[in-house]
Amino acid sequence: MQVQVRLFAIARERAGTSQAMLDVPAHSDVAQALSMLGSTYPKLSPLLARCMVAVNREYAQRDHTLHDNDELAIIPPVSGGAQ
Amino acid sequence: MNIILTHAKLDQDALTASVTKPENGGLVTFLGVTRNHNEGRHVEYLEYEAYEEMALQELKRVAEQAKQKWPEVDIAIAHRLGRLEIGEVSLVIAVAAPHRKEAFAACAFAVDILKE
Lengths: 83, 116
Prior knowledge:
The complex is a heterodimer of chains A (about 80) and B (about 120). Chain A is of the alpha+beta class and about 80 residues long. Chain A has helices at about 10-15, 30-40, 45-50, and strands at about 1-5, 20-25, 50-55, 60, 70-75. With about 120 residues, chain B is α+β, with helices and mostly antiparallel strands. Chain B has helices at about 10-20, 50-70, 100-115, and strands at about 1-5, 25-35, 35-40, 40, 45-50, 75-80, 80-85, 90-95.
């Protein structure tokens, strides 16, 4: 199945692209998709563990099951302002 | 509810006007300003980038949560994107309510949720 990947900020810089199409086996989860993404874009790989992920614009955990045509967004860590 | 994401300079007056109603006696505005330090290091400027569709959705959620706790408030949130120099306003949250207690509380709450 196909997953549309969107990459932001430093994730985009490391991958060299803001968008990608990932071909993943049916019933893959986010963790598996990230693993494939890291293999496809080796410079991105070390960053992925620290990134948050959104599936179809909702934050998702690594064990979230993906479906065909899902949009997977890779969101690097941000500092949201200190107290 | 007025939710804005823009690369342009934030229009504070327009935002406060959008929550102004005859019933509202208290209006609280929070300005998030780009400061020159973060975690012990000097900051030269900030560059904000957003997953815009999701960012708008999340800002809307912040406003909805505030309204759920304080149903009488009117709230407007604007976040600026792109490069911001030190001293520039990156975020405006304007909250109006019949009484100041709710306006202050809802505004503080909205900032805290947004920063989470």
